[in-house]
Amino acid sequence: MSDINLPILVFLSSLRERGATHVVVEYAGSGDSGGIESTRLGPETLPLSDAERATIEDYVWKKCIPHDGWENNEGARGRVSIDLSTLVATLDHTDNYEEQGETQAREVALPEELRTAVVATGVPDCEVTGYVDSDGDQELYFSTGIQSELDALQPIADALFAFLDDQLDTFEAGDKGASVHVIVDAAAGTAEINYSPYEGGEMERPSTEIDIT
């Protein structure tokens, strides 16, 4: 028996003497931050004081939960279950990931009034890029051609973006949003919309057993 683990073993034994059969700690995170979400005893009718909760979470965070950057980007979630009869902790960890789905391409006709206005700028060809987030909110900007920051062109830019916003609403969105690339050819009266949805998924790691003794 490790002297380092003696305090936690005594503590877990005290929980077992109170009638607890197991301890469950769940954690999750994404976007570069993560932490413990919940801690409970089994049976769930057993109370758990703040001090006891802190003791469990401190040990599990330091000794059982991996620290390999799982909280970055799309993040992950997991559960540590401690069997108080065997003093073995089981770690079940699931990573989240994001991948780009098949691009949906569609050519649409520009309304005549909008087509005429864009041609009149002297820059009839332009490209628009941007994204649609998971809530359906859209952010578009010019990558070539018309510069939206020019005051004289702002109304035309706004009208073009409003038209494209309406068109993007007709595409099948991914659960993680989508990237957008539009090629506008006002002389031909068309806009080629390339809509690439992002899909999220999960990948379970093999369960890991940790002998607390």
User: How much helicity do the residues have?
Assistant: 10-25%
- Topology as a string of helices (H) and strands (E): HEEHEEEHEEHEEE
How many beta-strand elements?
Answer: 10
Gyration radius, rounded: 27 Å
Structural class by sheet pairing and helices: alpha+beta
Give the biggest sheet.
10 strands, antiparallel
Strand content: 35-45%
Shape: rod-shaped
Mean pLDDT: 90
Verbal overview:
- The protein is α+β, with helices and mostly antiparallel strands.
- The protein folds into 2 domains: 6-98, no CATH class; 101-200, no CATH class.
- It has 4 helices and 10 strands.
- Strands 1, 2, 3, 4, 5, 6, 7, 8, 9 and 10 form a 10-stranded antiparallel beta sheet that branches.
- Strand 8 (178-185) and strand 9 (190-204) form a beta hairpin.
- The chain starts with 5 loop residues before the first helix and ends with a strand.
Structure at a glance:
The chain is an alpha+beta fold and 213 residues long. It folds into 2 domains: 6-98, no CATH class; 101-200, no CATH class. 23% of the residues lie in helices and 41% in strands.
